[in-house]
Amino acid sequence: MVEVPTAVRDASVKLALDTPLRQGIGQVSKARIGGLFVLGDDDSVAAICEQGFPIDNVTASAENIAQFSKMDLALVLSADAAEIRRFNTVLSPRSTVLAQGVGARHVTAARTARDISFPVVAVSEETGQVTLFVGEHAHVLSSQTVLLSKAAVVLLALHSWVRTLTDEPQDITETAELAERVRHAVLEVEAYLLELGSKGDYVEQVLDGLCAEVGVDRLPLDPYRVPRRVPLLHAVAEELDTWHEQALQAADRILAERPGQVLRQHDRAFPRVAFDNDREAVQWCEQTAAQLLGSIRRAAANGDNELALRRSLAMMEYFYRRKPWSEWIDVLMLALFAARGLGDKRAEASLLTSLGVAQRELRNHELAFALWAAADDAWRACGDRLGRAELLNHLAYAYDEVGDSAAGLDYAQRALDLIGPDEDDRLRGKVLNNSSGIHCRQGELDRALVLADEAMQAFDRAGYRRGVIWALSNKGNAYRDAGRHAEAVRCYETALTARIESEEHYGAAITRADLGHALKAVGEVSRAREELQLAEAYFRQLGDPRADAITRTLSELDV
After folding, report:
1. Given the DSSP bridges, would you call strands 49-50 and 83-91 parallel, antiparallel or unpaired?
2. Beta carbons within 10 angstroms of residue 536's beta carbon
3. According to the model, what pLDDT value does residue 235 have?
4. Residues 322, 542: contact at Cβ < 8 Å?
5. Per the database record, which ranges form the DAC domain (predicted)?
6. What CATH architecture does domain 6-141 belong to?
7. List of the chain residues with pLDDT < 50
8. What 3-state DSSP class applies to 317?
9. Is 77 helix (H, G, I), strand (E, B) or coil?
10. Which DSSP category does 12 fall into?
């Protein structure tokens, strides 16, 4: 369990996600302009400031922080983070401590934090990483999605320990050990809540309940603890009616390309909703997203786990298409605890797997692996062989993504071994397609093409149109790497058309980037630039690191 020093906990309150300071720093991080912030102003700070511009009566709003940071160098704020006191300032600390970091800002921040009594924050220009320095301590601040996922891992463990303490007789030694684990887990979640601020209301609600069960007193864990915000029950939209329930299930069926439960029409005043294509289903989900999310949160707050879980699962395909990261992970968290409350181990395993997928796509691989380890335990517990195969396929992709292609292929083969000869062609196609991509990235292009064809055949047998398009894109990658650029362009163009028609914006952006590279290779520079710019704009909006690589490619086109 993570032990956070008291000084860091105190400073984290000022940097909670819902504060103007953190939001301004977040804008600096997202813009990749780098930044250096001193969170306090006294004689010791003035002594290490050179040049720069002192200012008065400038509110430290998120917008002002972002704007003044564009002038480079350091920004000095008041101790309560309410005002900007100095900007474009050179910091010259006396300390010469060597600090681990990604650049000069981190070194300066680490040295400054040792010279003064205030926290210092450094934002990396290259990665956007935000690091808090307090005295000799350094603490990397996390995004909302990472914090919620980390909290989920700890809360699930805490839930299990609380159940053991309250339901099963223990001897004195075992009870003492479990109680100590519970104490450390509560402290860890408390640290996450400091950064989450009001974004952690549901996490706090779950933690309160677990603490109450075993009589753990959460206060006074920290005298500067963020006070509890408006209860979740009062912050959500009103409950969806039966008509919305039926429409959501209809959207899920068409987006997932599989039959689903058809709910009985309870009120004939509402016509049954049907969608003719993916575009209609996605657009309906977008238009009603606030109501859908509100109903899930209210169901969770009211303890209606069955409703919260059912509606959360029905939104997964929409989330996968549109990638609204915060909402996606928030709903996964709600659904995860609803599944735990219902004792639905299979749903819990599926949701942990999905949570890991979301974190992998955000490039948080270490956290993804931790979530998948918990998912593997859950799949084993419920004896779901195909569920484990799906998980192993995700592990295969992730290990290849972090550079261990041998492990990736091993996990892919283990996944295939779990699928019977006449079982689940959709899942078989996913594993074959994944294996094709790994072989392609290893330079084994003939094998990659064979596997891509096998994947397309499996997807076709399953009637899974999106899968066929995935495999076609992989085939284009193999053609591209083999220097067969005209064939690659044809594959990408077909895949792009299908992905645009199905409102799969994320997949379309990936295909646009691939198509741009292929067009560049065949000398169609103007078209290449157009596709790459569209892909860059989409990934930049999402905060996806692919945007930076595409920017570099575009700069090469202009040379």
Report:
1. antiparallel
2. 23
3. 23
4. no
5. 5-144
6. 3-Layer(aba) Sandwich (3.40)
7. 1, 101, 219-241, 260-271
8. helix
9. strand
10. H
